[in-house]
Amino acid sequence: MNKLKMIVCVAVVMTSAAALADNAKTASNDAGPIAQAKISMGAAVAAAEKHANGKAVRAEYEQGKDGRWAYDVEVTSGTDVFDVKVDPDAGTVVASTKDAVDSDDEGDKAD
Fold it and tell me: What are the backbone angles phi and psi of residue 89, rounded to the nearest 5°?
């Protein structure tokens, strides 16, 4: 019985180690791609605030479903919240949608 437990434990450890190693290879963050952007996040926030006539409450640099990178800035204007996409090279607003009342931006039209 102890031999069986030892074999199971070794198998679990090896599987976990393999999964962690695979995750380390595929895990990434936005530090590499954001270095390629021609405008800063601050400039993207300023463009989004001007466009929506409000104040930014969140900003991210993210890759869209089409593979292109953009700044995604959430801006409040009065009681409205807008999800504003800003081109990282030109600094222009490429999309702006009024957010539904929710705690995240998953599934919003501009995503």
Answer: -100, -45
* 7 within domain boundaries: no
Task: For residue 24, tell me if it sits in a domain.
Answer: no
CB within 8 Å of 14: residues ≥ 6 apart: none
Whether 103 is in a domain gets the answer: no
By C-alpha distance, which of 62, 45, 76 is closest to 106?
62
Domain total for the chain? 1
Alpha carbon distance 78, 81 (integer Å): 8
Do residues 98 and 81 lie in contact, with contact meaning Cβ atoms separated by under 8 Å? yes
Residue 88 domain boundaries: 31-98
Q: List the CATH number of the domain containing 94.
A: 3.10.450.40
> What are the DSSP E strand ranges found in 29-103?
55-63, 69-77, 80-86, 93-98
Per-10-residue mean pLDDT for the chain, 111 residues long? 55 48 52 88 97 96 93 95 96 93 58 51
The structure's pTM equals: 0.65
Residue for token pair 């952007």: 37
